[in-house]
Amino acid sequence: MIEKSPTRQMSRKQIALAIVALSIGGFAVGVTEFAIMGLQREAVADLGISIGEGGTLVAMYAIGVVVGAPVLSLMGAKRERKQYALILLALFIGAHIFSFFAPNYELMLLGRFLSGLPHGAYFATAALMAAQMAGPAKRARAISVVLGGISIANVAGVPLVTWIGQQFGWRWMYMIVALLAIITMVAVATYAPRQQPPAGATVRAEIAGLKNQRLWVGIVMGVIGFSGMFALYAYISHVSVEVTGFPDERLPWVVFLFGFGGVIGNFVGGYLTDKSVLWTVLAAMVSVAVLMFCFATTAHLPIPMLIFLFLVGIAASTLGPSMQMHLIDTAPDAPQLAASFHHSAFNAANALGAIMGGIVIDAGWGLRAPTYVGAAAALLGAVICVYAIWLTRRTGAKI
User: Fold this and answer.
1) Which of 139, 150, 165, 182 minimizes the C-alpha distance to 33?
2) Most distant CA pair in the chain, distance
3) pTM
4) Where are the domains of the chain?
């Protein structure tokens, strides 16, 4: 179970500084996860690969998260959380330095995989720390601040890194992210309190806590529902230039707009999730499906394309806090592992969306095809959410 809030020992200012310190790590993660999408044209040209193979650079990071999140979270189940967060950040830094120097496509894929390994475990640890500090009434909003690092990265970090990569070489993304992770380590070491895991926490207890149908339905729902957005965003640079007709130098502004929508959606999601977790998930998934269909049909028109991209960013990011809380709530006896599964699901969706998009593009269906496929995936996620609501009502748990 998540422990009671330690706010008696910490002032509101101390709690805020600690949560913001943890969110800086989310900022670094957001840059490395999403800047590769804005720089994919440069990566494809530099490595001499196809567009579909460029999508695999996105997918390999996501696969690293899927593998690393449960494994590293289990390894951290009994560890003091602040110390473990610092260890995970150190692994993240090393993998990005390796990627910066990777001489070919194959080693770059390995670097992307290694970079993704600590992602989910870090967010699981940071989310649980933030939730404990904030207390039960504000836990979703505290988690939304940690996850908000990703959304803010899409506004402030990804456009800037996209521009730097276009000017000085796309590989500099990796060194910038390594520097951001170093800053995170210093901030977390300075402001975050030491925080012991729940009494009696063990690897066996975490695994035993996973015997829950609602948890696994939630994971499947997240993988399928989130994949829709990634089918669009993994190829946004190609759509922007080759379908909409924007010049390359406008791409930082395109990704900025999507990221700005993501910031709004993340904090709206945190607020709505504290009122109802699954109704927020359902509304967000239906909205993503409708808006992505509209984006695909108007992608050749600059103004409608930008409007619908912005709205997709809002709707998709609303899912972040709500899915995170749903998975934690479904496995209260395995909080570390359940929290990490949110990021496994999110990044399995990242990989699935990028791979689906690459398949339909390489099959000659056109650059809009991934978005249509993604809209269908989001709609299927909404159907699964209806089933999750039914399961939750049957158990008597809060929806």
Assistant:
1) 150
2) 61
3) 0.73
4) 12-395
Question: Residue holding tokens 């993704």?
Answer: 116
Q: Between 324 and 19, name the one with better pLDDT.
A: 19
DSSP SS3 for 238? helix
For residue 116, what are its two tokens?
Answer: 């993704």
CATH top-level class for 12-395?
A: mainly alpha
d(CA 132, CA 9): 12
By 3-state DSSP, what share of the chain in percent is helix, strand and coil, each rounded to 5?
80, 0, 20
Helix runs in 39-50, H state only: 40-47
Q: CB neighbours (10 Å) of residue 126?
A: 31
* Per-residue tokens: 315: 């709707």
Q: 272-283: per-residue pLDDT in tens? A: 988 889 999 999
- Angle at Cα 140 formed by Cα 206 and Cα 8, nearest 5°? 85
For 315-325, give one letter per residue: b (16+ CB within 10 A) or e.
Answer: bbbbbbbbbbb
On whether the CB atoms of residues 99 and 111 are closer than 8 A, the answer is yes
> Which tokens sit at 247?
């010049």
